Amino acid sequence: MKRIRKGDQVVVIAGKNKGQRGEVLRVLDEHVIVQNVNLVKRHQKPNPAANQPGGIIEREAPIHISNVMLFNPATKKGDRVGFKILEDGRKVRVFRSTGEVVDV
Questions:
Q1: Which of 7, 34, 46, 99 could form a disulfide with 54 if both were Cys (CB 3.0 to 4.6 A apart)?
Q2: Tens digits of per-residue pLDDT, 67-87?
Q3: What CATH fold (topology level) applies to the domain 9-95?
Q4: Residue 63: which of 6, 15, 1, 2 has the closest Cα?
């Protein structure tokens, strides 16, 4: 089970985008792609077969997973994530600071 998943709200804790917040769009092995964070310009050639125009496009680049923390809405800060097994046998993610369950 991963600590950070697609759809989570995260805060960037290191690098040029430190302090920015966004939603995780994709989780790659050791990297995540966060919406509107770590934007890079890409020079793209047109591809008529895929109906893609050419030009300079801006898109999100991957960030290492160690440089983001899960956003805790209760404390309005990034928080570490732990795991807990409930009475019914489900394994859920919990915030380390409050013990509150992340998954619903």
A1: 46
A2: 999 999 999 999 999 999 999
A3: SH3 type barrels. (2.30.30)
A4: 15
